Amino acid sequence: MHNEYFGGIAKYDYGAIAIPMLQKKQVLAFSFLRLGVDNIANTLNLVNVDGTVDYNKVTLFNVADMAFLASYAKKLGKDDRWSIGGSAKIIHRSYGGFSYAWGFGLDVGAVSQTRI
Known about the structure:
The chain is mainly β. It has one domain. About 0% of the residues lie in helices and about 65% in strands. Strands 1-2-3-4-5-6 form a six-stranded antiparallel sheet, with no helix packed on it. A hairpin with a 5-residue loop joins strand 4 and strand 5. The chain is elongated. It starts with a strand and ends with a strand.
């Protein structure tokens, strides 16, 4: 999926795939997402020491958040009443050449369904 916000300034991209496992009632999934603003003008060096403006010193940079997720889910029991699952994620944030950060996360969950 691709979406643009604020007249195309911010861009959001998402892709995922879910793969049924050979053993029934199990699924493995992978997801990737990116939210970013590209081609931001860096004007930190625009003005020279003598006060003259030099537009050749303007460079471009990007700001983006990216995430990669791996997920797993499985139904339990003969009646499939219980399901368990989890996701592991790696997140990367970058501010052009100025700074960057990494993050990691883990989510787990269980669901019980009652049939009426």
